[in-house]
């Protein structure tokens, strides 16, 4: 087998969503001039889009439909699809959409030739994958059940036992088998992102459906409770990958934010020392390079099978892995609804630590100025 070698490494980012490539206007006017609803119509039952060949996964359209203007809920499915396509097309240029199509073709070449080692990994089996405490908490599906298994070592960073050791071993074995096949077939694979030179995109060799179910049935319910302000309840697409650190692998990872609304990070093993995650506060794009406050500092040591869940805009990095081999599963979860709606709201960064501090400082100054004016007026009244 020969994979498409023409794909430049600069394109080897996450599949499916454009980022920073500009926006082009649709060639057709929108069917309605109204904006999307700010809150979903929870009583509306969306259409089923599974039978259509669409640019995005069908669940994206079903999720977005609940936010359509009320006047559009009763129109035909085809008209709804056209309207939503035009909205989603705003996220990427024509060149980006071409790149995405090439990536789909590249992925299909791999899937049609690669023979999985552990086929039971490709369908989600909660009893074989997850820790019993995690399964129970998600089945109850309340804030109380989630908090019963979750620790919050720093505001906005949540940790909990998630994966069984047997699942970690199977996934590690599958990744090793895929990397062996890549070497033998001399196929140039796309790496997870522009920062990691080692690792693999799990979606590229058949695990997309399993990871979709992981996001839909397990991560979205938790995110709905803990990350509602960044689209936690409307996560509808993902980028799933493995990163590897150690000798002859990546050593560390620089300070950055993720192209996600919510990020799941689970250590799979194996034996290693070092490699701590460090967090330094949540920031919007305007404040991404601002100072870290003492209360925002967290260093976290990985434990195999234990998950870390945080906002994509939570600044973080990874310290050097001093010895051994560390492998982590990453799932960047995104919400097309959130990305559309945030363009309509002037103040959409109440979750940003620096925005919050600026607001509190303005309030403090306003109160101080009011007190000063009252003291002045009181002094004048006594004269």
Overall shape: it is globular
Helix content: 25-40%
Indicate the radius of gyration in whole angstroms: 23 Å
* Distance N to C terminus: 94 Å
What structural category characterises the helix and strand content? Answer: alpha+beta
Largest β-sheet summary? 8 strands, antiparallel
Summary keywords:
alpha+beta, 383 residues, globular
Describe the fold and architecture.
With 383 residues, the chain is α+β, with helices and mostly antiparallel strands. It has ten helices and twelve strands. Strands 1, 2, 3, 4, 6, 7, 10 and 12 form an eight-stranded antiparallel sheet that branches. Strands 5-11-8-9 form a four-stranded antiparallel sheet, with no helix packed on it.
Task: Please summarize what this structure is.
The chain is an alpha+beta fold and 383 residues long. Helix content is 35%, strand content 19%.
Please outline the helices and strands:
Elements: H1 58-65, H2 77-89, H3 94-113, H4 126-129, H5 132-140, H6 143-147, E1 151-154, E2 157-161, H7 165-185, E3 200-201, H8 208-226, E4 237-246, E5 253-256, E6 262-269, E7 272-274, E8 277-282, E9 297-300, E10 306-311, E11 314-318, E12 321-334, H9 336-341, H10 353-382
Antiparallel strand pairs: 1-2, 2-10, 3-4, 4-12, 5-11, 6-10, 6-12, 7-12, 8-9, 8-11
């Amino acid at each position: 087998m020969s994979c498409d070698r023409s794909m430049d490494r600069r394109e080897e980012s996450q599949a499916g969503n454009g980022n920073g490539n500009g926006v082009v206007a649709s060639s057709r006017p929108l069917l309605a001039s109204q904006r999307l609803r700010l809150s979903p119509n929870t009583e509306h039952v969306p259409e089923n889009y599974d039978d259509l060949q669409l640019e995005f996964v069908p669940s994206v359209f079903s999720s977005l439909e609940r936010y359509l203007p009320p006047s559009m809920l009763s129109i035909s499915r085809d008209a709804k699809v056209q309207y939503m396509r035009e909205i989603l097309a705003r996220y990427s240029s024509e060149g980006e959409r071409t790149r995405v199509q090439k990536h789909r073709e590249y992925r299909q070449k791999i899937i049609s030739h690669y023979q999985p080692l552990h086929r039971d990994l490709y369908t989600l089996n909660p009893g074989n994958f997850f820790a019993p405490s995690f399964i129970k908490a998600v089945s109850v599906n309340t804030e109380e059940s989630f908090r019963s298994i979750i620790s919050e070592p720093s505001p906005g960073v949540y940790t909990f036992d998630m994966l069984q050791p047997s699942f970690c071993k199977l996934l590690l074995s599958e990744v090793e088998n895929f990397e062996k096949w890549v070497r033998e077939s001399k196929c140039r694979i796309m790496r997870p992102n522009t920062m990691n030179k080692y690792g693999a995109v799990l979606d590229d060799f058949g695990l997309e459906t399993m990871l979709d179910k992981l996001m839909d049935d397990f991560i979205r319910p938790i995110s709905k409770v803990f990350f509602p302000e960044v689209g936690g309840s409307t996560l509808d697409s993902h980028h799933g990958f493995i990163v590897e650190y150690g000798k002859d692998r990546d050593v560390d990872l620089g300070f950055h934010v993720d192209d996600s609304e919510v990020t799941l990070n689970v250590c799979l093993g194996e034996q290693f020392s070092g490699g701590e995650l460090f967090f330094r506060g949540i920031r919007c794009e305007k404040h991404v390079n601002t100072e870290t406050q003492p209360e925002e500092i967290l260093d976290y040591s990985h434990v195999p099978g234990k998950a870390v869940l945080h906002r994509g805009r939570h600044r973080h990095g990874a310290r050097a892995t001093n010895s051994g081999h560390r492998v982590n599963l990453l799932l960047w979860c995104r919400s097309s609804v959130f990305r559309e709606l945030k363009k309509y709201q002037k103040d959409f960064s109440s979750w940003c630590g620096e925005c919050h501090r600026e607001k509190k400082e303005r309030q403090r100054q306003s109160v101080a100025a009011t007190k000063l004016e009252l003291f002045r007026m009181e002094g004048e009244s006594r004269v």
